[in-house]
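Appendix B, example 12.
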Amino acid sequence: MSMEANASRLATDRMSLLTKIARMYHEQGMRQPEIAARLGISQSRVSRFLKEAVTLGVVRTVVVPPPGVYSELEDAVRDRYGLRDVVVAEAASDDDRALLNALGAAGAAYLETTLTGGDRVGLSSWSSTLLATVDKMSPRPKPTASAVVQVLGGVGNPAVQVQATRLTDRLARVTGADAQFLPVPGIVANSAVRDALLADPNVADVAAEWARLTVLLVGIGSLQPSPLLKDSGNAISETEQQRLRERGAVGDVCLRFFDAAGELVDTDLGDRVLGISVEQLRAIDRTVGIAGGERKHEAIRAAALGGWLDVLITDLATARFLTAG
């Protein structure tokens, strides 16, 4: 046998052994020590062969997403807008209730997975998606956050402010955290009233916590209030909405309004908001926005473009809208 033929034969035998080891490990579920003992070779050699099998393409890893999982779309939205993470949920139908259920379940799963126990969580005072998320969460055996802090006063009538308090309390209970409430309106008559309320020791103590937050949970508002918000009184006046539209506003996070490019729209309303400032909001390490639905498409895109979010949890149709064009 010629040297060339002998070398070819050795290469074939080696590939045969490499393939056998790969099948034993990946298809038959044998551990590396078992393979080494079965074939009479060292475990280190088994390990080298397994690595080489991947390099040569004998073993290829293929991820097949199950129905309802949209990892490629999530990656596309994340990369296009420079976000840290994106979660896409599929609603069972087109109605608002199904959308809220899907977003709430996705938001709850994300928080239950990512809250570490030492997080100090800021919570916007009112959002139908935040309500749905917190309702879907279950208490854990150990605390998953150390504090839950309200970052925006209740907006609208007194009943809405009670709901904002209940939302904060509920999230604190399911995470095992201490709750810190902001028992004031979200919008007041003028900046002098805002400053006076911020000077109150009870309010000042809560506001001081905003600089210590590690996570912020927010909804994304649009200038087309949902029926829930209209019915609750938790919407700014039509006159103020019109003024914001004239300035180009399309949406808000914590009542900080921005235009289609995500740039802050500065009006006197900003001086009347009793809540976290733009600078404080942007300084938080991880802001998680939970929002979806066609009514909010432009607002969600603007929030992502403007860097108002680090993580977006949204629905399938909105994610496709964000990657279109």
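Residues 3 and 9 are 10 Å apart (CA to CA). The mean pLDDT is 88.
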